[in-house]
């Protein structure tokens, strides 16, 4: 029991040492520790980082758009009230008529923003936030678990190699050699357990990143199309509200596809 506890403590200490070496090496390059690397996982992690950055930038952009549209809506509502108040105080019937048209147009336009344009943008924002906070975070947690088990794998490999060297240095058949041989079997069993866990997490990380990319390609174009459709209808409605405006010259581009 004492030997087992000592071995367990030694392994945990070795894992800490391995993790420390990797961290220092990443920053300064002082050590060259053993590092198990799966190219497919490394590629998936790189893709995950890029995807997270892209979704975060999209979320920030849509959030600013929503804020801007709400500010516009509130300004139109306030100006609509001001126009109505100004109309009451004027004697010029022609001016009253124009102020009435402006007030009604601003009021209708602000309602279109609230009921038509904003919902599509807010739905897209909610999807981006959920994708970022839940789906990507879940994948990142799997990456963290993968890195932890990879460090443990590297550690046990080093311990096995060191134990084999000690065995070869002992007198054949000696008590110390037998003790080290039993210890080696324990280390090899630990390696099998860690390797099985490592293989599972390797597959898990790759699959989760692939699923994230598949979902992005499937869902994101639909949300963008919904935003575009709302923008087009809102634009057409605005032309009706402000019939004398020259905004009919404005060209609204189609949303760029993100499925490529």
From TrEMBL:
Chain ranges of the AH domain: 36-247
PROSITE patterns (UniProt xref): AH (PS50870)
Entry-linked InterPro entries: AH/BAR_dom_sf (IPR027267), AH_dom (IPR010504), Arfaptin_fam (IPR030798)
One Pfam family this sequence matches: Arfaptin
Lineage: superkingdom: Eukaryota
Record-level GO cellular component terms: trans-Golgi network membrane
Record SMART domains: Arfaptin (SM01015)
GO molecular function: phospholipid binding; protein domain specific binding
Name the UniProt record assigns to this protein: AH domain-containing protein
């Amino acid at each position: 029991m004492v030997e087992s506890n000592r071995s367990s403590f030694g392994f945990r200490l070795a894992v800490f040492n391995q993790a420390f070496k990797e961290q220092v090496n990443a920053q300064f390059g002082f050590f060259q520790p053993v590092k198990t690397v799966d190219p497919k996982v490394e590629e998936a992690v790189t893709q995950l980082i890029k995807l997270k950055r892209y979704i975060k930038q999209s979320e920030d952009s849509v959030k600013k758009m929503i804020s801007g549209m709400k500010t516009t809506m509130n300004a139109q509502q306030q100006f609509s009230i001001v126009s109505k108040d100004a109309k009451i105080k004027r004697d010029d019937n022609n001016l009253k008529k124009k102020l009435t048209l402006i007030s009604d147009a601003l009021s209708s336009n602000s309602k279109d923003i609230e009921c038509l344009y904003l919902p599509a943008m807010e739905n897209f924002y909610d999807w981006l936030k959920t994708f970022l906070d839940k789906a990507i975070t879940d994948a990142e947690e799997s990456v963290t678990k993968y890195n932890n088990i990879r460090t443990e794998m590297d550690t046990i490999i080093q311990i096995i190699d060191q134990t084999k060297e000690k065995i070869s240095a002992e007198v054949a058949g000696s008590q110390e050699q037998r003790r080290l041989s039993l210890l080696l079997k324990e280390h090899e069993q630990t390696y099998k357990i860690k390797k099985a866990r490592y293989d599972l997490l390797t597959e898990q990380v790759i699959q989760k990143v692939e699923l994230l990319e598949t979902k992005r390609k499937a869902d994101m174009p639909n949300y963008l199309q919904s935003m575009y459709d709302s923008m087009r209808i809102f634009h057409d409605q605005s032309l009706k509200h402000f019939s004398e405006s020259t905004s009919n010259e404005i060209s609204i581009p189609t949303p760029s596809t993100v499925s490529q």
